Structures are given as structure tokens and as C-alpha cells.
């Protein structure tokens, strides 16, 4: 396949790249490049957080739109006003006249149009087959504007928050895209209800480089309950805290460690202390991915009590669940969003109702009390990931879509 794709050139537009929460995009880009596809990444902003050494390497060659000098932005706008006035003013008029939820969101679309102009100006001399936006938020707005200004096709990958939390001109972004990829069948069903041409929506799971995750025999010692995720409402960590309190009252001796950072750090730490769990539950903060893998090796069970956020935010299939399964960790999560697409309760893990600390505690206890059951969950979980979530199979599906576009150009 490598030789067949050496001619293919893609532009990936991403809001912030790289970051610790976009390792699934890293895998996708590496796989495409490994198959001979040329991928030029355009990121709207630079990531501010710590990234891994591998991500530092991926940063090389990334084009960053912000910050932008006023002179460069002026030149970009003048270029299209002079050489493509109908496209320039037509695109601007189209974007700002679409239905918006508020004046603020219309203003943001107006500003993102100028980021699209800047992107188009940077890419005007590049040869490529498709502009692909990861997330149907500002990245898709920029991709749509650049696509129209340059007369090139665009496509999008829709994920979770970008679909459900105050989406901006979502029907228009979907309708204008050559194809729409999304990472769960749950999302596909939702998106198919939004546009007339539901045939353009593809369920393509995030690809896992399964060979990178090699399970090892669990070390004897302190029992470790592990979770990984941004410290946000949709991760449901307070229910994990309550479950830990129940288990502690029942005499279980364990440590619960949570890897991740986010806006709820202080309030979650306060809740830990309020419940008397200061010596049991530890927030480890953000960690490089290699450190996360080491924690998978140390843990006896992985728990993510995902819930729908009050603002509509929700997970699809959290990548950390796939990673934990690949490491043959028994996984406990909730009957929510796309999670049942990978966890079959009682077969390769356990699912409990959302916002149910009692059921969560019982599920954790079931796994801790029966290590043989946990091992069987882990073995079946890794098999599930290998069969349905491998990087080759899923990025291959994405590549097929790009090939169709290239064949039309």
C-alpha cells in the first residue's frame, strides 16, 4: 500500500496540536505517513502543556496560524480580495448569515473566517487532495473557509464535545464536507439525523497501535485501581470517589490513582478530602504517555465512570478504555454513549448504570475478589481491540475515503 499512496497529499487542520489528549490523532498521522501519504498539519494554536518526546518530533513541520502578524493577515485578505473576490465575499457572507445560537457564536465564526483566510493563503501554493479537519468546531470552520477560497474539497472527523455542546453551524459543516468520519456508531446515528445525506457519514473507530501495548504479569503488592481522563464533569470521577469510600468501609485495602488534569482539579481534591479519602485517592496530574503505560502495568483494574455532562458534553469511546483493554486490564465503565460498542458487560468487562456509585463499588469488588475473572476480562478485552480497533484496519478505512477524493481530482 505504501507505493500506491506516495502521490497522496493531505492537509490536516487541528485546533491545538500536539497535546496530551490527542494521541489518537498522532497514531493516525503516523500510520498515514507510514503508508506513504504526505500529511501537512496546520494547527490553529500551539499546545501549551507538556508533551511526549514522540509528540515533540511530530511538532516539526507543523504550520501554526496563531499568533499571526497584522501585516500577514492583511496580505492574506488582500490577496483573496484581489484574486478571488467572489469566493472571498461569498464565503464570508455564507458563514455569517447561517443560523447561529447567539451573537457571540456568530462573532466567533466571523473571526474563524479570517483564520481560514490565513490558512488558505499559507496553503495557496501547496499541492494537496483534501483538507481534513479533526473536530467539527473551529477547525472545521477554518477548513470550510479555506476549502471554498482555494476551490479544494474538505472532510471532517467529528468526535464528542464538538458534536453535542453548542455546535456552531453543524449542519452546514456536515453538508459541505466530502465525507464525515466519526468514532462511534452512537455518534453516527446522531449525525445522520441532522443532515439529509446520511450516506456520507462513516463510523471509523480510533485506530490503536495494539503492538505498542504489551501486557505484563501483574506485580504483587498494593492493589491499584486506576483511572485516566481529563478532570471534567463527563468523566464522572465523584462517583468513583463514592465507590472508593464504600469499598474502604467494607475493608478493602487499595489505592486509587487518577491521571489527568483539568478545570475540576481543585473541586475534586476538596471532595476527596471531604470523603476522608486523602490517603486512598490520589490525583497524579497530567503524565507523559509512557508513564500512563507504566501505570496500566501496575494496576489491577481500570475504572472510568463516564456520565453525560450538564452542558451536553460526553465521551464517545474514550481512548483510555481501549488502551487499558490492550494492556489486558479488566475495565469497568458505564452504559453510556459509545462505550457499549467496545465493552460487552460480563464478557470483556463490566458496565454499570451512569451516576450509580453503589453499582460501581460492587463491580470493582467483583473484579478485586476474583482475579481469574479479571484476567479473563483482560484477555477478551485485548482480543476485542485487536479485532475491531487496530490502527491498520481503521486508518485503512479513512485512507479509502481519501483515495476516493483523490480519484475525483
Reconstruct the topology from this structure.
Blueprint: E1 9-17, H1 23-34, E2 38-46, H2 53-59, E3 63-64, H3 70-83, H4 85-97, H5 103-123, E4 130-134, H6 138-150, E5 154-158, H7 161-164, H8 170-176, E6 180-182, H9 185-192, E7 201-203, E8 223-228, H10 237-249, E9 254-259, H11 265-274, E10 281-285, H12 289-298, E11 301-303, H13 319-326, E12 331-334, E13 350-352, H14 357-369, H15 371-388, H16 391-408
Q: Would you kindly provide a written description of the structure presented here, covering whatever features stand out?
A:
There is one protein chain. With 409 residues, the protein is of the alpha/beta class. It has two domains: 3-207 and 390-408, Glycogen Phosphorylase B (Rossmann fold), CATH 3.40.50; 212-388, Rossmann fold (3-Layer(aba) Sandwich). It contains 16 helices and 13 strands. It has helices at 23-34, 53-59, 70-83, 85-97, 103-123, 138-150, 161-164, 170-176, 185-192, 237-249, 265-274, 289-298, 319-326, 357-369, 371-388, 391-408; strands spanning 9-17, 38-46, 63-64, 130-134, 154-158, 180-182, 201-203, 223-228, 254-259, 281-285, 301-303, 331-334, 350-352. A seven-stranded parallel β-sheet has the order 3-2-1-4-5-6-7, with helices on both faces. It has a six-stranded parallel β-sheet with strand order 10-9-8-11-12-13, sandwiched between helices. Strand 4 (130-134), helix 6 and strand 5 form a beta-alpha-beta unit. Helix 4 (85-97) packs antiparallel against helix 6 (138-150), helix 10 crosses helix 14 (357-369) and helix 14 (357-369) crosses helix 15. The model has no long low-confidence stretch (mean pLDDT 94).
Amino acid at each position: 500500500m505504501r507505493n500506491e499512496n506516495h502521490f497522496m497529499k493531505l492537509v490536516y487542520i487541528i485546533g491545538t496540536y500536539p497535546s496530551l489528549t490527542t494521541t489518537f490523532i498522532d497514531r493516525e498521522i503516523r500510520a498515514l505517513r507510514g503508508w506513504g501519504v504526505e500529511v501537512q498539519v496546520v494547527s490553529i494554536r500551539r499546545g501549551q502543556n507538556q508533551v511526549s518526546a514522540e509528540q515533540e518530533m511530530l511538532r516539526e513541520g507543523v504550520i501554526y496560524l496563531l499568533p499571526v502578524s497584522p501585516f500577514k493577515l492583511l496580505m492574506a485578505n488582500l490577496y483573496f480580495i484581489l484574486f478571488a473576490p467572489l469566493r472571498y465575499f461569498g464565503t464570508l457572507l455564507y458563514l455569517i448569515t447561517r443560523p447561529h445560537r447567539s451573537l457571540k457564536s456568530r462573532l466567533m465564526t466571523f473571526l474563524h473566517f479570517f483564520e481560514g483566510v490565513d490558512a488558505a493563503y499559507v496553503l495557496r501554493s501547496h499541492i494537496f487532495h483534501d483538507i481534513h479537519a479533526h473536530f467539527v468546531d473551529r477547525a472545521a470552520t477554518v477548513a470550510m473557509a479555506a476549502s471554498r477560497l482555494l476551490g479544494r474539497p474538505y472532510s471532517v472527523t467529528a468526535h464528542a464535545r464538538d458534536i453535542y455542546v453548542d455546535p456552531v453551524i453543524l449542519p452546514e459543516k456536515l453538508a459541505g464536507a466530502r465525507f464525515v468520519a466519526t468514532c462511534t456508531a452512537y455518534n453516527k446515528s446522531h449525525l445522520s439525523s441532522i443532515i439529509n445525506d446520511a450516506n456520507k457519514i462513516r463510523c471509523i473507530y480510533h485506530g490503536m497501535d495494539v503492538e505498542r501495548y504489551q501486557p505484563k504479569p501483574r506485580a504483587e503488592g498494593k492493589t491499584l485501581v486506576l483511572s485516566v481522563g481529563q478532570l471534567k464533569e463527563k468523566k464522572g470521577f465523584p462517583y468513583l470517589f463514592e465507590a472508593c469510600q464504600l469499598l474502604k468501609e467494607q475493608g478493602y485495602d487499595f489505592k486509587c490513582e487518577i491521571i489527568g488534569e483539568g478545570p475540576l482539579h481543585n473541586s475534586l481534591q476538596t471532595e476527596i478530602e471531604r470523603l476522608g479519602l486523602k490517603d486512598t485517592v490520589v490525583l497524579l496530574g497530567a503524565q507523559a504517555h509512557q508513564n500512563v503505560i507504566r501505570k496500566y502495568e501496575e494496576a489491577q483494574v481500570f475504572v472510568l465512570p463516564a456520565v453525560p455532562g450538564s452542558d451536553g458534553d460526553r465521551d464517545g469511546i474514550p481512548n483510555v478504555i481501549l488502551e487499558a483493554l490492550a494492556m489486558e486490564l479488566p475495565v469497568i465503565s458505564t452504559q453510556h454513549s459509545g462505550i457499549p460498542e467496545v465493552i460487552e458487560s460480563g464478557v470483556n468487562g463490566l458496565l454499570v448504570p451512569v451516576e450509580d456509585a453503589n453499582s460501581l463499588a460492587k463491580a470493582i469488588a467483583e473484579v478485586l475478589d476474583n482475579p481469574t475473572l479479571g484476567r479473563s476480562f483482560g484477555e477478551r478485552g485485548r482480543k476485542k481491540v485487536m479485532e475491531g480497533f487496530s490502527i491498520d484496519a481503521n486508518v485503512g478505512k479513512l485512507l479509502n475515503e481519501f483515495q476516493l477524493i483523490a480519484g475525483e481530482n
